[in-house]
Amino acid sequence: MARISLEHIRHAYSPRAKAAGDYALKEVHHDWEDGGAYALLGPSGCGKTTLLNIISGLLHPSDGRILFDGRDVTELSTEERNIAQVFQFPVVYDTMTVFDNLAFPLRNRKVPEAEVEKRVNEILEMTDLAGMAKRRAQRLTADQKQKISLGRGLVRANVNAILFDEPLTVIDPHMKWVLRSQLKRLHRQSRFTMVYVTHDQTEALTFADKVVVMHDGQIVQIGTPAELFERPSHTFVGYFIGSPGMNFMPASVEGVTARVGDQTIALANAPILRSDGKIELGIRPEFIKLGRDGMPVTINKVEDIGRQKIVRATFCGQPLSIVLAEDDDIPTDAKVSFDQHAIGIFSDSWRVENRSSRQGG
Ligand SMILES: Nc1ncnc2c1ncn2[C@@H]1O[C@H](COP(=O)(O)OP(=O)(O)OP(=O)(O)O)[C@@H](O)[C@H]1O
C-alpha cells in the first residue's frame, strides 16, 4: 500500500500541444492517502482513464512526476510499480479452474504454494466464489468471471495500489449493487489504496471515501460524498452530483443580498467577490420549499418518483427543480423559498467563499 503523489501532472496525446485546450489532462497536483478508497468520477472524455493509466504506468505523462510513498516512479513500468489492475471486461483464463485463475498472479511471482493456498482461499471466501473453486472458468456467467477478475486484483497482499477501470460495466444491475457493497467491504478488510474509475455517481458515492470529480481534463473537487452534495466547489459538481442536480441561476450580489431577476434573496453570509466574473446562485432542489409565503413561481410539472416528488418550475424566467416529500402538499398559487444556509454563490463557475467561513465561522 502506498500514498500516491501526483506532482504537476499534465498530459497531451499530441507532442505539439501548446494551449491548455490541447491537454487531455490539465494540471493535476494532489496527494492521495495510503489506504484510501478513491473514485474518479466524471463524464466520458473528461480524462479519467488518462489519469488512471498515468498512475499505473501504461502512459508516461507529458509533464510532472508521480511518487509512491515519496519514491519517484515516473520512469518505472507497471510491473515495477507493483500495482494490480481490474479492467472493464473480465480477464480470465477459460481453461483454468477458478482457484488457478486466482492463484495465477501469486504463482507468477513464485509465492510458496502453502501461501498461495491460504491467500486464494481467503479471496474465495471474500468474493463468495468458494463453492466453485474447482470449476473451469469457461462456463461461468459474465459477473462470476468479473468476480474472478476482482479477486485476482485483490489476491496479492503486498501491492502498492489496486486500480479499477469501470469494473462493473458488464454486470447486471442487481449484481452491480451486490459487488459494489462487497468491494467496499473488501476495502475495509484489506485497506489497500484503491482507485476506481466510473462515470456513475451511485457507484462512486457507495464505493469511495473520497470522490475525485473530473471535468474537462481537470480535477474540480476531491471530497466525501457529503461534501460534494453540501458544498460543491464548482457548478459542474453541483450539476453532476445529485438527481436532479443543483439549480443555478444568474445573479448579482451586494453584501448579504443576492438578486435573481426582480427578486431579492437574503444570504446567510456575505460572499467575498473578487472579480467581475459571471455570478450564479446555486441551490439544491432538496432545500427549496413550496408554501403560501415566499417568491412567485410557476409550476410546470410534478413527477412522482415514489417516496419523493420532483416539481419542475420556472422562477424569474429560469428553470427550477424542487424535491418534495411524497406527502408534501403543493398549495394552489404556491410561493417558493430557499433555505438560506444551502445557498452557494459561484463566480465563473467556482464557489465563492464567504466572510464567516473564511474566518472559521
Ligand atoms: N490514445 C489517444 N489518443 C488521442 N486522444 C486520446 C487518446 N486516448 C484518449 N484521448 C482523448 O483524451 C481525452 C480524455 O480521454 P479519457 O479516455 O482519459 O477520458 P475518460 O474520462 O476515461 O472517458 P471514457 O469514460 O469515455 O473512457 C478525450 O478527449 C479523448 O478523446
Automatic annotation (TrEMBL):
Pfam families: ABC_tran, OB_MalK. Residues 4-241 form the ABC transporter domain. PROSITE patterns: ABC_TRANSPORTER_2 (PS50893). Its main location: membrane. It is a peripheral membrane protein. Keywords: ATP-binding, Cell inner membrane, Cell membrane, Membrane, Nucleotide-binding, Transport. Belongs to the ABC transporter superfamily. This is Glycerol transport system ATP-binding protein. It comes from Neorhizobium huautlense. The lineage of its organism: Bacteria, Pseudomonadati, Pseudomonadota, Alphaproteobacteria, Hyphomicrobiales.
